[in-house]
Amino acid sequence: MVKEIYIKTHDQDCFSIKLEDNDGILITTITVNDDNDRPNNKEFSALTEALYQLVEDHANELISLYHTYYKRNKQ
Asked: Helices marked H in the chain — which ranges?
């Protein structure tokens, strides 16, 4: 499951993408921060959309790889 979280503070935008497996185990979190010095946030929006799409498109692969390496390293 891919979740997105967007937080806006007075001086920064923060966008996080969390990837969890079906059991709710957190696989990874990708966080993108942007200061508000830019005249517009088009680059920030484009980057966060692209990252979200990338994680969503490859979620099953990422989860599978995580569990493969976790099991291998656990032994």
From this structure: 42-57, 59-74
Closest by CA position to 21, among listed 44, 2, 40: 2
Q: What is d(CA 27, CA 52) in angstroms, rounded to the nearest whole number?
A: 14
Residue-wise pLDDT for 25-46, tens only, equals 888 888 887 766 655 667 778 8
**Confidence tier at 71 by pLDDT (50, 70, 90):** confident
Q: Which of 30, 7, 11 is nearest to 20 (CA)?
A: 30
Going by the DSSP 8-state scheme, the letter that residue 25 receives in this structure is -
- CA dist., res. 52 & res. 10, Å (int): 24
Distances from the Cα of 50 to the Cα of 54, 55, 68, angstroms: 6, 9, 26
Q: How far is CA 30 from CA 63, 66, 72, in A?
A: 14, 15, 24
